[in-house]
UniProtKB/TrEMBL annotation:
Organism: Meloidogyne enterolobii
Source superkingdom: Eukaryota
Keywords: Membrane, Transmembrane, Transmembrane helix, Transport
Subcellular compartments: Membrane
Entry protein name: Major facilitator superfamily (MFS) profile domain-containing protein
InterPro entries documented for this protein: MFS_dom, MFS_sugar_transport-like, MFS_trans_sf, Myo-inositol_Transporter, Sugar/inositol_transpt
Transmembrane segments annotated in the record for this chain: 104-124, 144-165, 172-193
The keyword Cell inner membrane is annotated on this UniProt entry: no
Length: 238
């Protein structure tokens, strides 16, 4: 996803700082908007926008306002007649979504569909399987409740911070950050979580005990007569 948004950004129409006499340089955020190098950066910033010559693949930065016009620049209200923006017989248009950049726009959608399909049949149910194995019976319901709460809490955090993160770190930067956090989580998971394949629940619980607790539990199990264990499990053949 990060790579797809990076391609879209690199393919976006460049900003051309044309006739600066058209701009009121005292406008708030003027320096912020003039620093953006292309349409993608301009339209991602809520304080800026992108105004271009109609039919051109390049434009001037404009300061964004509440409507479809800007406070200053070729697309500002004072340069508008019936919604059209003419400067020296040249028509300018307000480009809100970088609509000229369509070469890679399908990539994020395609990658998101592939991710959702792969995740749904792969890792999506895995946390719930692990939750059912890791905890002793006496603590299982409480621990599953806590982990479920943490899961949805982080989902909420991601949802609340996503738009802010895309503005501060760019759209592709946000996904690169997510990728980095995922890589760290994978390494932590690989190092900390033991393999439980082929083990029963009692053996799984031993894996999460300290060395001292594990030795104590094994010693206690060894002291229980085998006949009693078989009786408790319904396998008494004597």
């Amino acid at each position: 996803m990060g790579g797809a948004f990076l391609l879209i950004n690199k393919n976006s129409a460049p900003s051309i700082n044309g006739n600066l006499n058209l701009f009121d340089q005292k406008v708030d955020s003027f320096n912020r908007c003039i620093s953006h190098s292309n349409c993608d950066f301009c339209t991602t910033d809520e304080l800026c926008g992108f105004c271009e010559k109609k039919g051109n693949n390049g434009g001037d930065f404009d300061h964004f306002n509440a409507d479809i016009r800007s406070i200053t620049g070729p697309c500002s209200s004072k340069n508008s007649t019936n919604g059209l923006h003419f400067i020296e017989n040249i028509e300018y248009e307000w480009n809100e979504n970088c609509h000229t950049d369509t070469k890679y726009t399908i990539l994020p959608i395609l990658l998101m569909v592939i991710f959702l399909c792969s995740f749904a049949i792969g890792y999506a149910p895995l946390p719930w399987v692990l939750n059912a194995e890791f905890y002793p019976l006496w603590a299982r319901s409480t621990c599953v409740s806590l982990t479920t709460f943490c899961n949805w809490e982080f989902n909420l955090i991601v949802s609340l911070t996503f738009l802010t993160l895309t503005q501060e770190a760019t759209k592709y930067g946000a996904f690169f950050i997510y990728a980095g956090l995922t890589a760290i989580a994978f390494l932590l998971f690989y190092k900390v979580v033991p393999e439980t394949k082929g083990l029963n629940l009692d053996e799984v619980q031993l894996l999460f005990m300290s060395k001292k607790e594990r030795q104590r539990a094994v010693s206690a199990l060894q002291q229980i007569p085998m006949s009693k264990i078989e009786n408790n499990n319904g396998f008494n053949y004597k």
